[in-house]
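If you are new to this repository, start here. Below is one unmodified record pulled from the training split, so you can see the exact layout before writing a loader.
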Amino acid sequence: MLCDVETKSFSPVFVGRAGELAALTEALSRASAGEPQALLVGGEAGVGKTRLLEEFLGEATARGAVVAVGGCVEIGADGLPFAPFSTALRALRRTLPDELAAAAEGQEGELARLLPELGEAGGHEPYTLYNDDSTARLFELTARLLERITAQRTVVLALEDLHWADASTRHLLAYLVRTLHSGRLAVVATYRSDDIHRRHPLRPLLAELDRVRAVHRVELPRFTRTEVHRQLTGILAAEPDAPLVDDIYARSEGNAFFVEELAIGHDCGYEPGALSDSLRDLLLVRVEKLGEDAQKVARIVAEGGSTVEYGLLAAVAGLPEDDLFEALREAVGANILLAVPDGEGYRFRHALVREAVSDDLLPGERSRLNRRFAQALEADPQLVRADARTTRLAGYWYHARDAAKALPVVLRAAVEARKRHAPSEQLQLLGRGMELWDDAPQEVRASLRPLDYAEAYPACGCDPQTTPLGYLDLLAEAAVAARVCGERERAFKIVKRALRLLDEETHGPDSEVCDPLRAAWFWTERSRLVSNLGRGDGWDELARAQDLVRGLPPSPIHAQVLAVAAGWGMLHTPGRESLAAAERAVEYARLVGAEAIELHARTTLGCILVDAGQVDAGLAMIEEVEQRSRILKLSSETARCYVNLSTCLEAVGRSRAAVAAGREGVDFSCSSGLRDSECWSLGNLTESLVPLGEWDEAEAGAQRLLRIAYSAKPRGMAHTQIARLRLHRGEPAAAADALADAREAYGTHDRIPQQVLPMARIEIGVAAAQGRLADVRTCLAALAEEGIPSAGSHRYGWPLLLAAAGAEADARGLPGAETGRAEALEVVRAAARRLAAPVALWQAYALFVSAELARAEGRQDPERWAEITAALEPLERPYRLAHARHRQADALLAVGGRRDDAADLLRAAHRTAVRLGARPLREELELLAARARVPLTEQAAEPPRAARPDDGFGLTRREQDVLRLVAAGRTNRQIAEELFISPKTASVHVSNILGKLGVSGRGEAAALAHRLRLLSEAPA
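And here is the target side for that same chain:
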């Protein structure tokens, strides 16, 4: 080894970057105060990111911080998942052995997936549990480990070359940044900004991290001419000539690394003009000046990986030890290679040089070098750390293009990636396995066994000891890995390919009978993916799977198909059939001992029981599943219980309890790293806050959901709640925009009642607010043709019918409203007859709908409204209660009832409307109070001036005349003729009216005028 080799630094002077270094050190100060920080240092290749990082780490060390550095492996190279974190944790273990051991105590088996030195990694779950549970737990344990270590000392975790990070590293980094809220930790990551193209996987992560308060971006620009002059002065140890500065500045364009390369060329006596303008040639010029052995060593290191261990390098090079030392000394002395900090191997000083050397290899030379690496590693496995051995060997044999050798080891590496909870890396390796499959000899494929490599589903009736691994087994593994790591489009293509192969096996001339369990498994996967990708509702695929397992003995796959079908029914067709399907799924799962599937099916069954009116039994079942899932450490199922518990509590009117469950669900999912579940819980939490009157918190929750959701449906939930709030606050145009966003997020292929009906309710509300009664009726009629709202959808159906009935009642008396009213009201009544009202909330809604239908027919009954108000008072529904009180007061005043009671109702409703910011309701209440001469404050001695009918909204008498004709449907020319004014004057009056009423169109003005009785006499 060359631990004593002295290297010459080409840039001994740290040039510029004062502002950037200050930003880093300021963040370090905040981290030292107990506020974790994350810093992202970006810049093009060679601009000086590493040098800035070195200066910062030196400053951090001087301040007493512990520094741990990890580097990412180039995209396309063969490295371990979580490689930079493993390297950094290994450095922490060397520096703080006792502290790290204490922090990891009790969790060594799980954390060994990141740091094998902690012990044997824990076992992995069977196929039925293949989801993000284990990955989430690993992320959470890593976060807690770092929190404990940094509780008493400052730690700087440096991750270099983040643009090469594997998916698992990116996910873990995002998780840590989002969840670490205590500890003296600073995470610094560097990346090449010029590599981050539009489709680069790091791009969405950077966008996500930008929204986190503790994250700071530092972008490094190129050097100015003055800075290049200072850099050259340091490199040459003399004042450079002005022409030389100009030439190097022009050719390097301020890139610090290129300045060094050009400067050393000048220092060695090369004429600047003699160098090629090609970047590759520029990077290779110094390598080509090395001796033959040193060049050979450089080529070997370039192909061996980011870092090549000394023993492995010696075995591949085949040089006498003295010659190898001299070659290494020459390459290190020329600043081409560097000894790694732990003294175990060598790497290139700059990745650009490594890329240039690797690209310069001939195709045959590259495969030959990889074969020699593989043979050396097989001959002496101890040359590489045990945790990296299989992955490195798989990469060497793969790049050696030896399918017989590569296939078994690639599949072993895929298994190890899975055990490390790295599905993205597993998918990459499985892809290589599928690529190698046809080229591998039959005897090699025959030696592989399904249970050795494939665990996406169990062996379907075959003897695993004698049945070889099949290509379909690889497809199943790859499909699950792709789905789990978020590559759903790729998963869908893999499943399609598998089903096509199964079909060919079934109908081929020499085929055996297709395995129905295997086919059913793939059809179930396809159902999930079709729904997730927005290409359908997934039922046709599920029906096919059910047909395939029908009549077969119980099996885990049979139980899984039934459980997924029951879940589909719960969302799409709640009712008796879905209840029976869920019960069958639970029974089959118990028969075959598949507890994870049983718990999933019981959660579904509990939800269906709640919808069927068996509220206490259903809620108790969900809570039992949650407790059992916690014991079994099934994080995803636990999170699913929270999601479904909160939505079931909201469905029965227990919004306060639903909020509590939603908060617990958000906290649990966040701490477990389950982003999708966190989004669903947050969406449910937001939905429950709205009826409780916590509108500001609901708005904040919906906006946060938009920031963190990466799946379409949670974003649709957020847009829906935003639209709902906009409508309540009197912003119909903004509500319409949010509704359009919700529709785009949900798509058109999977019309689930819990999505369709809330959007239809908002559409009706917007149309009514804008005076478009015809659109209200069109929307309702379209839903009726589809048979919705249907039985089982009462939670969403009653609010929809209330909006439609209220729109008809508010429009009574408007021109053209009478035509078609009877038919529209019958549509509402027919739908109401189909809906259940199993709990007090929906019983109150049923009364409300009935009262609005009567109002639409001109019948006002104060006693009926009093009954509705009494039903709503104990339900913690402030907005709906204020709405009912408004209607009750209006009815009392209309029939000459008790004015004192009406005044009390108006004041209570007005206080609520003001607190909530419900502008339309507040304005209706204020106008009704003014016209009835009812003061909205008990202290008011006399009604305000606004109580005069001719002063509503500040309209003049002439404007009231114009508004009356607008409400009657007259055009500007017709208004001008009737009032003996010019059309231009009529147009001016109409514009003034729209402005004073705060509406955007004539229809909306007419609707508002009618609803607020701006054109009628005051009630008695």
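Two things worth knowing about this chain: Residues 488-507 form the longest helix (20 residues). The mean pLDDT is 84.
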